[in-house]
Structures are given as structure tokens and as C-alpha cells.
Design brief:
The complex is a heterodimer of chains A (about 550) and B (about 325). With about 550 residues, chain A is an alpha/beta fold. Helix content of chain A is about 40%, strand content about 10%. Chain A has a 3-stranded antiparallel β-sheet with strand order 3-11-4, with no helix packed on it. In chain A, strands 8-5-9 form a 3-stranded antiparallel β-sheet. In chain A, strands 1-2 form a two-stranded parallel ribbon. Chain B is an all-alpha fold and about 325 residues long. In chain B, α3 packs antiparallel against α16 and α10 packs parallel to α16. The chains are: A alpha/beta (about 550), B mainly alpha (about 325). Chains A and B meet through β2, α3, α11 and α12 of A and α4, α8 and α15 of B.
Chain lengths: ~550, ~325
């Protein structure tokens, strides 16, 4: 008994030693062991830039994915998109749907309950922060080497400084963000161009021009019209609540600070090369002073910061205001149809006015992106999944497919590479008169879930002449560098969130008081003291520490 | 035997009594006072009461009439803010448009299904629970009450609930909607109070006559409780009709959704900032489509009220008067 046991243990020891030796030998021979050895089921061995992905399994691979269901084009399983996707890639997506209205909450619930689908798209940079510490999502930066198209874009488009802003305290990033080759300006102001012509006003370029335009409009067009203000604005209720979202953002950008929609407790000071508290900065004060001047002179409707979008739209449609925050789609969908009542009324976009910062615009070329359930790295199909995501979201062919559809069926491409939508299909105002079908609703292409960013060529391919003209008007602006990263660790993040709970609403509320004139700028010193009383300086300290820590790394 | 014979006819005689009661008490009193002299204070009260209630009615009705008017108006008229209480640019095209939306009707059917099943489940569970709690001689009654009341003040929160429902395999099933909300503690307590106020002699007599507990509940108590059952039906069906959150959380496919989620996505999804800064900012849902959807979703539940209302008043009074 003793002997046989001893013999058995000797045998197992020697067998174990042999395995160890063999492993050691193997690892010594190959320079790098294949960490994805068991995870390559369905993956292509020759996948690279320019190669279209197709899973190598006999049966289609199944990946689960969260789906943001848009009310304009409710999900339809018969869409050409799905069948064509499966045909091309041999991948079937099992969808977990959430309505657009509450997508974020469903994502949070699923992730926190540990039941998230594998692929979670439509996650804006920063939204992933709350999931990082639990370890529930994949540190995707560790695996981008499996994604040749993504990696090539990071390199060719110099995206690294943008990606750095996604970095967490552990030095990794978790959001596979959409990337634009070219910085894109979307929002500015729409103005009644017929009135500019009539009153001989040139398209405003600077903040002074902008104010003068409003003055002339007030003198010439508001006379005798009750409740008329040249500028009456919208966008007050988009969460997170930032009243006057676009108006304040655009003016603040001219002074060199991010506010309004872009408000962040701290801003990067380009001159001093350090982080400062946004609300205590001179640029922010100047922004509020400028807006206050507009209100005092009766050029800006005081309700601009509290009214619903509908009210602002109605004032514009009734000829009680002539300037309003906008993107191109708003012009096409809202303002132009609404102005049909006023004979001869025309509307167009003006470039965002420039200010003391000069002819610049803020950088940032990231879009919403994809996060992954951390469990995917244990899946035998992990490599195939990363290749699939790389192809569909980041390769030229994949993006063209997701946006334009199938050549010959939804669009044609001529020898110069110019794409044309088939005449019976409409999208973004193209073929509005001839079309019987819609690219999103009837085919499932141009879907916000799959279409983010892309090459300059692809982005421009869907611009109308008007959009092109607007973008050309800001083409010569110098793009400011992205602020350096300041990733919080878990404790810092908790503390920062805690401080912001009281600090941010106070800033919003008091900013409006300054703008509307119910608080005097003589009181600015007290305002700053109030902010410090709400631990603003502690917050700045956290940011500065995090920034320094990142720099040292 | 005598006692039973006396109580048996009393049982059916009781239900007609409550409607007679308010009529006897309030109507003649007002007439008598009117004939003598209303005090000045009382008349002033009546005037203010009438004005106050009229204002409340207007405040309640105007938004609704406004939405109805919008639903029949043209898009441009709404966008330019010209629609108030009457439709401008009258059209029914939007109704035609919405009525051709397959998903809308599918979700509508789901709502009807969920509301009916959930209401039935809720009524059964609430009634049986309340009946048990109304028995003062029951051992452990206090504990059972506290088990229910505890959930009024403390809940596990969204995530634990979600994990629980998933672990029970209820996700994407009607039971995920019907079961977690089957007992509203408030309704339970109202019903318990109602049952407690039923004369115990009735049940004793029935017991002597040979009915067991279930028989007493089914054949004596429930027929006497139509008023409170109607009230509970109203409470539950309205809340299930309007509810969207459990469905949103536990159902993962739009074909399973109730119409409230359809509507919410139409209203909030299109106007919220979820997509702000996104590439596709074509978030344009016509205001009249929204109005039509609101009207179509409100109408059935509004129609329930007139039919249940008389029970409703009685049921609430019965639950509350004795105390």
C-alpha cells in the first residue's frame, strides 16, 4: 500500500516536472505565448486592415448586444441591415433592447446586476466611469492589438491625446470610443437671413459683430412687436441640466472656457498651462458679463434660460425672435418648415462668433463608443468578437456598410468614389421629393448604434450643400489641443462626485442670476467665496493631484 | 337555526343600503336648510366652493382639451403655437398615420393584456391577504401586517430586485410585471379596514351553517364587498395601465413592451438630451403624433371611470367612515 502510493506520487511528481519543463521550453522558444490560445474560435488568422471580417465557423457566431431603440426608426428584425450583416460576417447579434428614453438606466442596471450583454454600444466618453471600479467592464485598451483598423486610426489620425482623456487611474481605458478624422462643429446659431439682407447686416464673425447684429435687428424688426427679442433661445432641459446649453457654451468658447453644455467643474487654462475652476475663471466671468449686457440691452430674451424648446420655437416661428441656437438638422426640420407662415422668411446658420481667444475652436474628436462586459475575455469567441467590432465600427468598409447600406440596393458609387442614394430612398433631406422609403426606418442603415465618426470622406458624403457651407465657414479655425487627462482613482472619484452634487447646481443657479442682472458683478467676490465654501478648492486639488500623478506616470 | 335564517336574508339586503344612506342623509338635509335659511357663511362657502371646484375642473380639463385639439391640428399650427383649445388646420391624417403603426397596436394589446392579468392577480392576492389580516383572532397577525408595512418603507432597490426577478426566470414574461407589484400595501390596508367592518355575526352564522373559511370568503364576504372590489379594480388597473418602469426593466424586446414605453420613448426619447452631441440629431417627432398617441392611450382608462365611479365613492367611504 505504502509502496504503491509512493510510486504513484513519484510518478506524478516526475510527470509534473516534465510538464513544467515542457512549458518552460515552449515559452522560451516562442517569444510571446498566445494569451488568446483558447479564444480564437471563429476568428480569422489573416485579419488585417483592408480584410473584411467573416467568422470562420460553420454556423453563425452569436454575440449579445444592447440595442438603443430609437422612436424614429423602431427596431425591425426584417431590416436588410441584419440579413446583410449576417451574410457578410457570419455573425448574428442577439439584442437586448432598451428604449432611447431610458437607455442609460437600463445599461446601468444590467451592468450592476452582472447581467450585461457582451457588447454595449452607444456609451458616451465618461459614462463608463461609474462601472470601472466594480470590474464589470473590460479594460479594452489591453486588447486593441486585436483590432487592426482601430489601431491604425489611432495612429494615422493622431488620436492618442484624445484617447488619453479616457484613461482611468489604472492607466487603462474602458470605452472604445468612436473617432472622427476631422473635428466637427455642429451647433451654432440660426438666423433669419432674409432680415440680414434686408437690414444690410453682414454675417457676424466676432462677438461684437454678433451684438451689433442683435442691436440692428432689435431697432429695425422689433419695433411695435410685443414680446420681441432678437435672440430667444432653447436647449434648457437636456440632461444634465445646463440652462442655455448651447448659448452659454458658444459664447464661453469665444472667451476660452468650456461652459454651458460643455461645463465641467474645472477647465484647462491654455495660458497658464494648468487646471482652474471654471466658475471662478476670468473667462467665465466675461462670458456672464457679455450675456448680461445682451439681456440689459433687451437683445436677449430673459426667458432664454428657462423656457421649453417649444416656446422658443414658437417665438421664432411667429417672428418674435430672429436668432436661435441650432444645428443644421434643426434648421431643416424645425425652423424652415415653421417659417412658412412668414412670406419671404429664410433661415441659415452663422459660424460661432469668435472672441478674445481668436480664430480657434475646442478640440475633441471622440464620439460615443462601445464598452464590453468583462466576461467576454473568457469567451472562446473573444478574438472573433474583437475582430467583428473592429470591422463593423472602425473599418472603412464596415462603416460604409453601416451608413450607406448595400451598393446597388440602397446606393451607388461612381468611379470617383462619390456615393449617391437611390432615388426612392430618403435620408437627411436627400431625395425628399422622390423617395418612398427611408434609409433608417425601412432598411436599418444609418443607425445611431452602428454609425459613429469615421473618415473625413465618409462624414462629408452625407452632408448637404448647406451643411458643407457651414463647415467651410469654420474650416480655417485652429483646433485647440485636448486638455490633458486627470484620471481620478476610486476615492477621488467619490469625493469629486460628492462635491459636485452641491457645487454644480449652485454655479448654474448663480450664473443665471448674474446673466439676468438679479445679482450684481460687484458681488463676484462673494460668489467665489460661496464656491470655496462648497469645497471648490478641494475639487481643484483633487484634479491637480490626479493630473500630476498622470504626468509622472 | 333561527339566527341563520335571520342573518341569511340580511346578507343580500345590506348592499343596497349604502347608496340609500348618503341620499337620505345629505339630500334632504340640504333641502331642509335651503327651505329655512342658509346662513350667510354657508352661502359664501357654497359660492367659493363652486368657484374653487370649477377652477380645479378647468385646470384639469384644459391641458387635456389642449392635447385633444393638438391631435386634430396640423403640424405647422402646433409648431407656431396657434393651437389652444380648438383644433387649427383640422385633420385626422395623424390618427390614420398612428393607427397604421403596427408596433403601437402591438404594444397597446400588451398593455391591455398586462393590465387585465396583473389586476386579476393583484385583486386575488390583495383580497385574500386582507381577509386574513382582518381576522383579529389570527395568531401572528401583527407579524403579517408588519411584513407588508415594512415594504412600504424599505425596499431592496432596483438592482437586487432585478437580480431576483432574473434568477426566478421571470424576465421577458408577463409575470415580471404582474407579480412584483401584485400587492399594494395601501390598497391592502384599505381592504383590511373594509373587511374588519363587516359584521362578524354574518360570518359566524355562515360558519354555523357549515361554510368553511373559503366558503365564507367566496359566498358571504365577497358578494358584500363589490364596492371595495370595484375601487381596488380601479386603483390597480389605472396604476398598471400607466406603469412603465417594471416593463422597461424586465422586458428586453420592444414587441413585449406596453404602450406606455412606446409613448415615453416618443416623448422623452425625442426631446431629451440622450442623443445630444451625437451624430444623428434628426430627432424630429411631430407634435401631433405625440398628441394622438397620448389621446389614444388615455381614452380607455378614462372610460373606465364613469362606470366604476359610483362604487368608487361608496368603497372609499365604507373603508373610512368607521374608525
Amino acid at each position: 500500500m505504502y509502496h504503491s502510493n509512493r510510486r504513484r506520487s513519484l510518478t506524478s511528481v516526475s510527470a509534473g516536472a516534465a510538464v513544467v519543463l515542457a512549458l518552460g521550453f515552449a515559452s522560451a522558444c516562442s517569444s510571446k505565448p498566445d494569451e488568446f490560445k483558447d479564444k480564437r474560435v471563429g476568428a480569422m488568422s489573416n485579419y488585417a486592415v483592408g480584410v473584411d471580417f467573416r467568422a470562420t465557423t460553420d454556423q453563425p457566431l452569436h454575440f449579445s448586444m444592447m440595442y438603443n431603440n430609437h422612436p424614429n426608426y423602431p427596431l425591425n428584425e426584417d431590416w436588410l441591415f441584419w440579413s446583410e450583416l449576417e451574410k457578410r460576417t457570419n455573425v448574428h447579434l442577439d439584442l437586448v433592447e432598451a428604449p432611447l428614453s431610458d437607455y442609460n438606466q437600463k445599461r446601468t442596471t444590467l451592468i450592476n446586476a452582472g447581467q450585461a450583454p457582451q457588447i454595449i454600444p452607444k456609451t458616451y466618453p465618461g459614462q463608463e466611469n461609474e462601472y470601472v471600479s466594480s470590474g464589470a467592464i473590460l479594460p479594452v485598451s489591453d486588447y486593441v492589438n486585436l483590432m487592426p483598423n482601430y489601431s491604425a486610426r489611432v495612429q494615422n489620425w493622431n488620436m492618442q491625446s484624445d484617447l488619453d482623456t479616457l484613461t482611468q487611474a489604472d492607466g487603462k481605458y474602458y470605452n472604445l470610443a468612436g473617432m472622427h478624422e476631422e473635428k466637427r462643429t455642429e451647433y451654432s446659431f440660426a438666423v433669419r437671413t432674409d432680415l440680414l439682407t434686408k437690414d444690410g447686416i453682414a454675417t457676424p464673425k466676432t462677438l461684437d459683430d454678433f451684438e451689433n447684429m442683435l442691436k440692428v435687428l432689435k431697432d429695425k424688426e422689433c419695433a411695435g412687436v410685443a414680446g420681441c427679442y432678437p435672440l430667444s433661445d432653447r436647449f434648457n432641459f437636456a440632461p444634465p441640466e445646463r440652462p442655455g446649453g448651447n448659448l452659454i457654451r458658444t459664447i464661453a468658447a469665444a472667451f476660452g472656457v468650456r461652459a454651458g453644455w460643455d461645463y465641467n467643474t474645472v477647465s484647462w487654462d491654455f495660458n497658464q498651462k494648468k487646471y482652474v475652476l471654471t466658475a471662478e475663471s476670468d473667462a467665465y466671468k466675461q462670458t456672464l458679463q457679455y450675456l448680461n449686457k445682451l439681456v440689459t440691452e433687451g437683445l436677449l430674451d430673459p426667458e432664454s434660460f428657462t423656457q421649453q424648446d417649444d416656446q422658443a420655437l414658437q417665438k421664432f416661428a411667429q417672428g418674435k425672435s430672429f436668432v436661435i441656437s441650432s444645428n443644421i438638422q434643426n434648421v431643416i426640420n424645425d425652423y424652415r418648415p415653421n417659417l412658412k407662415n412668414i412670406p419671404g422668411a429664410t433661415v441659415g446658420m452663422i459660424p460661432p462668433p469668435t472672441g478674445p481667444m481668436g480664430n480657434v475652436m475646442f478640440g475633441g474628436r471622440l464620439e460615443n463608443g462601445i464598452i464590453f462586459n468583462a466576461d467576454v475575455k473568457d469567451s472562446p469567441n473573444f478574438v472573433a468578437m474583437m475582430q467583428f467590432v473592429d470591422w463593423l465600427w472602425y473599418s472603412e468598409n464596415g462603416q460604409e456598410f453601416a451608413k450607406w447600406g448595400v451598393p446597388g440596393v440602397t446606393y451607388t458609387k461612381d468611379a470617383n468614389g462619390k456615393r449617391t442614394l437611390n432615388p426612392d430612398i430618403t435620408m437627411l433631406g436627400f431625395n425628399a421629393d422622390t423617395a418612398t422609403k427611408q434609409l433608417q426606418k425601412d432598411y436599418g442603415f444609418y443607425n445611431g448604434i452602428f454609425v459613429y465618426g469615421g473618415t473625413r470622406d465618409l462624414m462629408h458624403s452625407f452632408y448637404s450643400d448647406e451643411e458643407q457651407a457651414f463647415l467651410d465657414s469654420v474650416k480655417d479655425r485652429e483646433v485647440l489641443p485636448v486638455p490633458p487627462p486627470q484620471p481620478f482613482d476610486e476615492d477621488q472619484q467619490d469625493q469629486a462626485t460628492q462635491i459636485e452634487v452641491d457645487l454644480t447646481p449652485h454655479v448654474m443657479q448663480e450664473s443665471l442670476k448674474f446673466i439676468l442682472g438679479s445679482r450684481s458683478f460687484d458681488d463676484w467676490g462673494n460668489f467665489v467665496k460661496e464656491l470655496d465654501g462648497l469645497d471648490a478648492q478641494t475639487y481643484l486639488g483633487l484634479v491637480t493631484d490626479a493630473y500630476n500623478a498622470f504626468q509622472q506616470r | 337555526m333561527v339566527a341563520i335564517e335571520q342573518s341569511a336574508p340580511r346578507a343580500p339586503a345590506t348592499p343596497p343600503a349604502p347608496p340609500a344612506k348618503p341620499r337620505l342623509v345629505t339630500a334632504p338635509r340640504r333641502r331642509r336648510w335651503g327651505r329655512i335659511h342658509d346662513t350667510r357663511g354657508y352661502r359664501a362657502f357654497q359660492v367659493f366652493n363652486a368657484i374653487g371646484l370649477t377652477l380645479v375642473v378647468i385646470a384639469t380639463l384644459v391641458p387635456f382639451v389642449h392635447v385633444v385639439a393638438k391631435s386634430f391640428s396640423s403640424e405647422v399650427a402646433i409648431r407656431t403655437g396657434r393651437v389652444n383649445l380648438l383644433p387649427i388646420g383640422f385633420n385626422v391624417d395623424t390618427y390614420r398615420l398612428v393607427s397604421h403603426d403596427h408596433l403601437f397596436w402591438l404594444n397597446y394589446w400588451n398593455t391591455i393584456k398586462y393590465t387585465s392579468v396583473s389586476t386579476v392577480v393583484a385583486l386575488v392576492l390583495t383580497t385574500t391577504y386582507a381577509f386574513v389580516l382582518s381576522k383579529k383572532h389570527l395568531k401572528g397577525r401583527t407579524l403579517l401586517i408588519w411584513v407588508a408595512v415594512f415594504t412600504m418603507f424599505f425596499s431592496g432597490g432596483i438592482i437586487p430586485n432585478f437580480v431576483l426577478i432574473s434568477a426566478m426566470g421571470l424576465r421577458n414574461q408577463i409575470w415580471a410585471i404582474a407579480l412584483p407589484n401584485a400587492i399594494s400595501v395601501f390598497n391592502l390596508l384599505v381592504m383590511k379596514a373594509f373587511f374588519e367592518n363587516l359584521p362578524p355575526e354574518l360570518e359566524e352564522a355562515a360558519a354555523v351553517d357549515g361554510l368553511n373559511t373559503y366558503g365564507i370568503l367566496m359566498r358571504i364576504v365577497l358578494p358584500l364587498s363589490k364596492a371595495v372590489l370595484a375601487t381596488m379594480t380601479l386603483f390597480y388597473s389605472v396604476s398598471f395601465w400607466n406603469s412603465w418602469f417594471p416593463a422597461f426593466l424586465y422586458l428586453d424586446h420592444q414587441n413585449l413592451n406596453p404602450v406606455t414605453i412606446y409613448l415615453r420613448n416618443l416623448l422623452v426619447g425625442a426631446t431629451g438630451g440622450t442623443n445630444m452631441g451625437g451624430q444623428i440629431s434628426d430627432l424630429h417627432i411631430s407634435a401631433n403624433v405625440q398628441a394622438v398617441a397620448i389621446v389614444l392611450i388615455c381614452v380607455p382608462i378614462l372610460l373606465v371611470y364613469p362606470f366604476i365611479q359610483r362604487y368608487f365613492v361608496r368603497g372609499v367611504m365604507l373603508g373610512a367612515v368607521k374608525g
